[in-house]
């Protein structure tokens, strides 16, 4: 029978009408009154902490202050709508379109979802401060994080570009102390290159200034990763001879120190100086000129920086150079041949040093130090007992002893090799002496260091002719000696 009803056209029309009436009643339940007199449900709702957004501000200005950035809204609407919205759906703005530099109190505006109206806003006004933007150039600083591989050291980081522009409110721009980026160099064995680093602005307390606009925001950096280095003084040594009739008046290096790069094990033992060699035979006439001299890399080191220096060399006719005399105090006496002789003690002078009077060109003499002079007592072959030993003297070229200071001597006590060894005086390095004052330096870099050619090897050479001093006592007059 049910099938017959559904197949009946009149019954189907009536059923459709009834369903339509029911749907209409459900839709209009909350909008006014129905035929049965039901009231629509409206409600109020309080929304807290609604963010205040600035709108319309000219790009040349920046908002630096606002009395409040959160407000409380009371809104009204259908209950079904109010429950379907979140806090972020309610917008509150302050219009800064006509705002210039200064402080003003402006009304707040609302932008609410459809079907919702504002009842109240607290506060309804806000005081804002606007400043003009300023831009200033700052140098880029690159900081490193971590340590390079063992035995390696970091050079000075560089960036491209080296300068960037920071834009801020004028009052805040004064607070910028630096613009810095950080790069990780952990375990680096070679130069860190082609890295992009994001920059940030910091105040003098190291706090980031987050609102700073940096252009460009990133830079390319390079961090040199090199072997460790030690700074040593530069001494000038000489080869060759000037032509007859000419003398060396002065030699002034453009720099006085060089950085020696080497493994840590070499650096810990590295002392002495870096030698710049000047070939005097290339100077054929009087005058002042600039001469380039290469620096010799110390044994075991990898490189030296700079690799070469400029020397201002003045050559004058013999007799045209002003000479002067000077006494150099506390020049240490070194022992040569101590191991062969057994133990050796310097008896006199008790200080184990001597004052040495020298003369020569005024400029050269004025720069002399006691490390530029070597006094060596050769005790090889001496029998046990006390001996007065003439000292072999090594001086820089064109510097000589004054007549009243020759000869120089010291009294030494030589022990029998079978007797207990007496500690040799400070500065005695025995047969391994190279002109350095023993091991007292402990591997530290000294302000002044002994001249090349001092010690057992060169000192012995210097005494093979006559035991005299200065350039006359050096073989062929070409030994490496230091500029004072």
UniProtKB/TrEMBL annotation:
Residues 408-422, 461-484 have a biased composition (Polar residues). Residues 423-444 have a biased composition (Low complexity). InterPro entries: c-di-AMP_regulator, YbbR. Gene3D superfamilies: 2.170.120.30, YbbR-like domain (2.170.120.40). Residues 408-484 are annotated as: Disordered. This is CdaR family protein. It comes from Paenibacillus zeirhizosphaerae.
